[in-house]
Write a structure and sequence with these properties.
23 helices, Nuclear Transport Factor 2, Chain: A, Lipoxygenase-1, domain 5, 754 residues, 3 domains
Length: 754
């Protein structure tokens, strides 16, 4: 590939040659395969074939200009899919392969693109078009991966490019117009109502969550576009905006603490650097929100250490949900939910495990938020009413963590923040662009699953509001947390440093040293992060030999500007955005995107059923407060503590609904492509990136082996724990091509597709 972007002014030799037959194969999925309820689709398409209404393909030359438009490549003769009528596809079948024959001569040079027209009644999913023995060029592949609707649905031709990779300035001149027009079509005009066949990637606020027509209880604020409710932009859709081993092992303190390092939400725990813990909420608005935990609460469990010594020795840690919840607690507790804002202090023991020291439960002052918090502190106990109260305190902490996990760690920090990158990539980067090819596999199905979530999960009265404690204030609370979101802090090393879990140390493999050595999420995550970063660096170095090539890439610069100014428009003035002036910045950005879309999402999603399928371990709602002495609830706590516990946490209907949801969310699909896999081996024709990807794949398989070795090594107590659930959420599963899917509890899919 030429590395310089100067235009080649040499005239092409247009010597006429006799046309030759070029055989090809087309791989697609018929509509009746994907939607077996539409039994008419296959029959009607066969009738259309008999009537001469077929699927046509037309190659576009990258070397010979069109006589009618010298800026475009000349079109070859129209060819048609063969044997459609004779090919009957059962609705449970997978791909269908059709032959096609083109007429082409070597004076046309290489076909750089093709036009596909569907004259059938039904759409199909076009996967690939492969050509054999193209004169002078041999084997060629067009990776399509797109729905093709009937031609009358489009105002333009559906154009697909070969698997060549070009920066904008390197694109053959006769393909540039096609490249530019394809991006214009994908951006849309920003106003028209979108239909299912529209291929438009555009931005919108979260203005479709509420249903005020059902009544005031279903009204929700618009998220995004305001200082009060900033939010990542979503993809605009056709949906209209709303109008105005031991069965009780889970109860042990060790398992309660272990899941902060190797559970479904291992991304919150931080090192305690100041005692007592302090709040960052504005005291003018919320009064004194600092912790009431004192040394006398925890000193008996510090193993002879003073608090100061424990802090200096990096032995104290905290799971702190206080500041995120307190501003919303009065409103949350006005619903059927009755809960607290929690802080949990922990000690790092000599064997590498964590021991809970105290849990603080806080409520807004009854005279108003400005008067500060009213708090209670509970410490570990195993027997009597103190033991029962301790179990309840852990349940309230788990409720906080469950809600924060689902709304922030999972939805906001993976699904929502990635969607603007998906939109901008499809709007600003041609399918020929190397960064499009790098990232495209990590965006598969994300917009679809997010749109579905806005319709049935996070909408007003949706499943999430019914099963997670913030209820109707859930999404509004996530907008409050988004105010502190920073893109560069989504990098795993930066996140670990920010939380104080690691310190810089150049003598360690990843340039930092973990202060909790047995931290499965961080240990496995750093290995995955490093592998992704090395792969991205090798890939980008091939296409961008200098920083100047990054700055001179018009599509790349438009892409990055749009992400900052539109996709995350409420954050456009933040100083932490990379400038995209250097190759190092490009590598940083792409590594973060891939990490969030693949490994981070896998870590916070696929463990939901293994860890929370038994709701008492991770209740999502609390229905009543700590019982007061002298009440019937307190008497029940004394006489039947298990019943009192169950009456406090998630109700039966919510449990059934919630468990059904997380079982679905925790399943891998049967067509999953995992990190280090591609759904098509011909995703690029460039040999060096293919070789770099193979090295990436091999490294991930090494990591798989290392994960299994550590899980079987009894020195690492946090990898299995009392419940005997080994940590495999960051096991890449790169080596698995079985396509079995299901509740495996392991595997890192390339994209956020569930």
């Amino acid at each position: 590939m030429e590395k310089l972007c100067g235009k080649n002014k040499k005239k092409q030799n247009h010597k006429v040659d006799h046309s030759k037959k070029v055989k090809g194969t087309v791989v697609l999925l018929k509509k009746n395969v994907l939607d077996f309820k539409d039994v008419k689709a296959s029959l009607l398409d066969r009738i259309h074939e008999l009537l001469g209404k077929c699927v046509s393909l037309q190659l576009i030359s990258s070397a010979r200009p069109n006589p009618e438009d010298g800026l475009r490549g000349k079109l070859g003769k129209v060819a048609y899919l063969e044997k459609w009528v004779r090919t009957i596809t059962h609705f449970r079948a997978g791909e269908t392969v059709f032959p096609v024959t083109f007429e082409w001569d070597d004076s046309m040079g290489a076909p750089g693109a093709l036009i596909v027209k569907n004259h059938h009644r039904s759409q199909f999913y076009l996967k690939t078009v492969t050509l054999e023995d193209v004169p002078g060029h041999g084997h060629m592949v067009f990776v399509c991966n797109s729905w093709v609707y009937p031609a009358h649905r489009y105002k333009y031709n559906r154009v697909f490019f070969s698997n060549k990779t070009y920066l904008p300035c390197q694109t053959p001149e006769l393909l540039r117009k096609y490249r530019e027009e394809e991006l214009v079509n994908l951006r849309g005009n920003g106003s028209e109502e979108l239909k299912e066949w529209d291929r438009v990637y555009d931005y919108a606020y979260y203005n479709d969550l509420g249903s005020p027509d059902k009544g005031p209880d279903y009204a929700r604020p618009v998220l995004g576009g305001s200082k009060e409710y900033p939010y990542p932009r979503r993809g605009r859709t056709g949906r209209k905006p709303t109008k105005t081993e031991d069965r009780s092992a889970w109860r042990t303190d060790e398992e309660f603490a272990r899941e902060m390092l190797a559970g479904v939400n291992p991304v919150i725990i931080s090192r305690l650097e100041k005692f007592p813990p302090t709040s960052e909420l504005d005291p003018k608005v919320y009064g004194n929100q600092n912790s009431t935990i004192r040394e006398e609460h925890i000193e008996k469990n510090l193993k002879g250490l003073t608090v100061d010594r424990a802090i200096k020795n990096n032995r104290l840690f905290i799971l702190d949900h206080h500041d995120a919840l307190m501003p919303y607690l009065t409103r949350i507790n006005s619903t059927t939910t009755k809960t607290y804002a929690t802080r949990t202090l922990l000690l790092l023991r000599d064997d590498g495990t964590l021991k809970p020291l105290a849990i603080e439960l806080s409520l807004p002052h009854p005279q108003g938020e400005a008067h500060g918090a009213v708090s209670m502190v509970f410490t570990p106990a195993e027997e009597g009413v103190e033991g029962s109260l301790w179990q309840l305190a852990k349940a309230y902490a788990a409720v906080n963590d469950s809600g924060y996990h689902q709304l922030i760690s999972h939805w906001l920090n993976t699904h929502a923040v990635i969607e603007p990158f998906v939109i901008a990539t499809n709007r600003q980067l041609s399918v020929l662009h190397p960064i499009y090819k790098l990232l495209h596999t990590h965006f598969r199905d994300t917009m679809h699953i997010n749109a579905l979530a806005r319709q049935i999960l996070i909408n007003a009265g949706g499943v999430l509001e019914r099963t997670v404690f913030p209820a109707k204030f859930a999404m509004e609370m996530s907008a409050f947390v988004y105010k502190n979101w920073e893109f560069t802090e989504q990098a795993l090393p930066a996140d670990l440093l920010k939380r104080g879990i690691a310190v810089p140390d150049s003598s360690y493999p990843h340039g930092l040293r973990l202060l909790i050595e047995d931290y499965p999420y961080a240990v496995d995550g750093l290995a995955i992060w490093s592998a992704i970063e090395n792969w991205v660096r090798e890939y980008c170095s091939f296409y961008y030999p200098t920083d100047d090539t990054v700055q001179d890439d018009s599509e790349l610069q438009s892409w990055w500007m749009e992400i900052r100014n539109k996709g995350h428009g409420d954050k456009k003035d933040e100083p932490w955005w990379p400038e995209m002036h250097t190759r190092a910045e490009l590598v940083q950005v792409c590594t973060i995107i891939i990490w969030v879309a693949s490994a981070l999402h896998a870590a916070v999603n696929f463990g939901q059923y293994p860890y929370a399928g038994f709701l008492p371990n991770r209740p999502t709602v609390s229905r009543r407060f700590i019982p007061e002495p002298g009440t019937s609830e307190y008497a029940e706590l004394l006489s039947n503590p298990d019943l009192a516990f169950l009456k406090t946490i998630t109700a039966q209907f919510q449990t059934l609904l919630g468990v059904s949801l997380i079982e679905m969310l925790s399943r891998h699909s049967t067509d999953e492509t995992y990190l280090g896999q591609r759904d098509n081996p011909d995703w690029t024709s460039d040999a060096e990136p293919i070789a770099a990807f193979e090295r990436f794949r091999n490294k991930l398989i090494e990591i798989e082996n290392r994960v299994m070795e550590m899980n079987n090594d009894r020195r690492w107590k946090n990898r299995v724990g009392p419940v005997k659930v080994p940590y495999t959420l960051l096991y890449p599963n790169t080596s698995d091509y079985s396509r079995m899917g299901g509740l495996t509890g392991k595997g890192i899919p390339n994209s956020i597709s569930i």
